Fold each of these.
Amino acid sequence: MALLSGVGARSAYFPDIAVPFALVRIGAGLSFMPLLTIAMADVPRADAGMASGIINTSLQVSTAIGVAVLGTLSSDRTRTLLHHGVGEAAALLGGYRLAFAVGAGCLAAAPLAALAWIVRPTRRKTPTPCPAASSPSSSYVPSR
């Protein structure tokens, strides 16, 4: 994202745009599965489908919100630059640069926020089985 914020009007597609896009794809691909695994780690097996659906839905919603916020920042910056007499191409480029810079800042802050808010799991004591549950009489099934 930081590399994309430096793209100019005369930047070539390769390497100025293609390389940052490839890095974004690689980073997203390498992070989604570990994050999903961490999120699903303590979910009971019976609730795994529902939890996975909630996690994937929240991922999609948060992505949509991020795109909406960055798009709003970009269009507002473009509109402001146009109002101040900057040319259309330069104003649009200024809006995109702001959005990519804010996105890069958010990506840089995310690991710090995660480290600050991660709760270390505590060791759970294994519950002792109830003696009545393990006795032979508790498995009695009446005949018809």
Amino acid sequence: MQNKPEPALDLTACNCLAIRQAARRVTQLYESYLAPLGLRSSQYSVLARLSRLGPMSINALADGIVMDRTTMGRAIRPLQRDGLVAIGTAEDGRKRVVSLTPAGRARFKKALAQWRKAQKEFELSYGALAAQKLRATMKDVISAVPEMGG
């Protein structure tokens, strides 16, 4: 009995490519609303997380947003330069802690209004229930795919 060769992988069905293409398209939509405030979507995510959870270490912030620490550092730099976040030292002196400044809170409040417009546009285009299911699916993907590296 001869072994059947395995079917060739359909290279057009790349999960990574499909997810990245969708992410880029959605990012473009949200950033079109955030751009007048001088924010990128990754920076908005930082401001939103700090607004919701308060000061946190750079590592905790990166982990919560599912971003590597180096990329998080690049996202934070312009926020710090613009006076929207402050970076200090934790009580134990070993960790760097990021917190919103009063200017950061004010910018976040304006950005939240823009984010809501982007969210509404996305949900009108894609469907509110479909968007809810998509968010749940993406959370499942994050949980299912093992973290690589550090």
